[in-house]
């Protein structure tokens, strides 16, 4: 059973990597849909997603294992550091995991490959 799971994972990865980059980006989770609330040291990270922030910004890259990956960071290096703990002083996120996009029992890989 483990080798069947491994083969399914490898088949999915091979199929995924054959897609054009824009297709891989499009089928993955989108940052604006996934991040519902975001603050760092009291600064609204979501403003960075719409370009309305001079303090925060983000970068996007594709990972073969994880799909769309995002880095949200402060434009000012000093603003991007925190020496205090807790959600008021560090990063606080509310994420929509989009559970309806997942199917049970590896069906998402099988459907994707057909």
Briefly, what is this?
With 114 residues, the protein is α+β, with helices and mostly antiparallel strands.
Main structural class: alpha+beta
Q: What would you report as the Rg, rounded to the nearest angstrom? A: 18 Å
From the N-terminal CA to the C-terminal CA, the straight-line distance is: 21 Å
Subunit arrangement of the protein? single chain
| Low-pLDDT regions | 109-114
Order of helices and strands: HHHEEHEEEH
Tell me the overall shape: elongated
Beta-sheet strand percentage? 25-35%
How many strands, what sense, and barrel or not for the largest sheet?
3 strands, antiparallel
What is the topology, as strand order, of the major beta sheet? 2-1-5
Mean pLDDT: 80
Share of helical residues: 25-40%
- Tell me the number of helical segments per DSSP (H or I, 4 or more residues long): 5
Number of strands: 5
Q: Keywords for this structure?
A:
single chain; 114 residues; alpha+beta; three-stranded antiparallel beta sheet; two-stranded antiparallel ribbon; 5 helices; 34% helix; elongated; disordered C terminus
Structure characterization notes:
- The chain is an alpha+beta fold.
- The protein contains five helices and five strands; from the N terminus they run H-H-H-E-E-H-E-E-E-H.
- Strands 2-1-5 form a three-stranded antiparallel beta sheet. A two-stranded antiparallel sheet has the order 3-4.
- It starts with a helix and ends with a helix.
């Amino acid at each position: 059973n483990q080798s069947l799971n491994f083969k399914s994972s490898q088949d999915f990865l091979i199929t995924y990597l054959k897609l054009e980059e824009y297709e891989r980006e499009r089928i993955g989770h989108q940052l604006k849909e996934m991040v519902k609330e975001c603050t760092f040291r009291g600064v609204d990270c979501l403003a960075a997603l719409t370009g309305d922030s001079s303090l925060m910004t983000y970068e996007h890259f594709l990972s073969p294992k994880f799909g769309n990956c995002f880095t949200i960071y402060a434009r000012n290096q000093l603003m991007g550091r925190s020496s205090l703990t807790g959600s008021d002083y560090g990063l606080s996120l509310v994420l929509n995991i989009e559970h309806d996009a997942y199917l049970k029992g590896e069906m998402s890989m099988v459907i994707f490959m057909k």
